[in-house]
Amino acid sequence: MDLPTLWFGLLAFFFIGYFVLDGFDFGVGMSIPFLGRDVRGPNDTDRRVLINTIGPIWDLNETWVIVAGAAMFAAFPEWYATLFSGFYLVFLVILLALILRGVSFEYRHQRPEIAWKRRFDRMIVIGSAVPAFLWGLVFANVVRGVPLDAGFNYTGTVFDLFSPYAVLGGLTTLLLFFTHGVVFVSLKTSGDIRERARQLAGRSGLLTIVVAAVFLVWTTVSFGSVWSGILSAVAAVTLVAGWLANQRKAEGWSFTFLAATIAFAVLSLFVSLVPDVMPATNDPANSLTIANASSSGYTLTLMSWVALAFVPLILGYQAFTYWVFRKRVSRASITGEPEPSGPAASGSRVSA
Q: What is the dihedral of CA 137, 138, 144, 146, to 10 degrees?
């Protein structure tokens, strides 16, 4: 395997890490209107429980996109330039949404007023849903291809990025991340909110299976290869397995299967691109490939040694962080109040 191909694979690994980890962060944020109780006073305990499930780790998960972007910039500068210049409005919206979400996590608890907290809750939902949709849109356009000139510049408009296939890709990641996040809530909480999260994951999981199946079939038939088709089939199997595990109240297995679904789905998209990194729909001669988009051999060799030294350290630190914050979050851990139980708890009203 040559160095450009190796770094194409490493880039896929970094994006898989980002979508698996920040994906459930997005899902938890989007779940606030569904799992957070109606706030009728200073007690918004359920929403605080939701936010605290990702409180110690959300910013660590988000650093994966920085690593992925930096790796693309260094290893495939032509791809980076074409992608970020052609899709700059979409990436700007993603960046603003991520900033909005991060600010909301930090400022929500700074004042006791319910109206103050409600505003930041809405910002968390928006800051989670927008990137979850737009990342799927971006990768669907990369797989489908876009019009490029001889200088590898994007010649379309921002509206051209919202094709039916790309929108379906965005809906797929939106629903997949939502279900992934709700399962994470059931894995990390106890009591009433854990059960409500499991039930919500069962409902959203069915919709996710349908939408994801259509997207993966469309991708395989129109843009895929034998290997990408096999990976898509594995992703479909793990998605169904994750839904079944959730129905059996096996949250750990459900979360693992959904993480595998995201991993195999992203890997199938990267495999379907080979040997391109961004196909040109107007003229195949203008396509960016792994070969013509990569950096020099010296640069890739230096990057390989750096990655060999630091990637294991990053993975070890992340694993240690998850181990430290492995315990479930409960209402009692937030305020000391007991968990609700009985029919009143199971029939509790939820609202945005």
A: 120
Instruction: Please indicate, yes or no, if residue 345 is contained in any of the structural domains.
Output: no
Q: What whole-number distance in Å separates Cα of residue 128 and Cα of residue 124? A: 6
Is 352 among the domain residues?
Answer: no
268 neighbors 219 (Cβ within 8 angstroms): yes
Could you give the number of structural domains in the chain?
1
Q: What token pair was written down for 226?
A: 């034998």
- pLDDT tens digit sequence for 46-96: 888 899 999 888 888 988 999 999 999 999 999 999 999 999 999 999 999
Q: 173-218, pLDDT tens digit by residue? A: 999 999 999 999 999 998 888 999 999 999 999 999 999 999 999 9
The amino acid at residue 348 is: S
pTM for this predicted structure = 0.91
Amino acid at 294: S
Angle between the N-to-C axes of helices 164-188 and 192-223, in degrees from 0 to 180, rounded to the nearest 10: 150
In a domain, 338, yes or no: no
Name the 3-class secondary structure at 288.
strand
- Residue 202 makes CB contacts below 8 A (sequence gap 6+) with 243, 246, 247
Q: What number of residues does the chain have?
A: 352
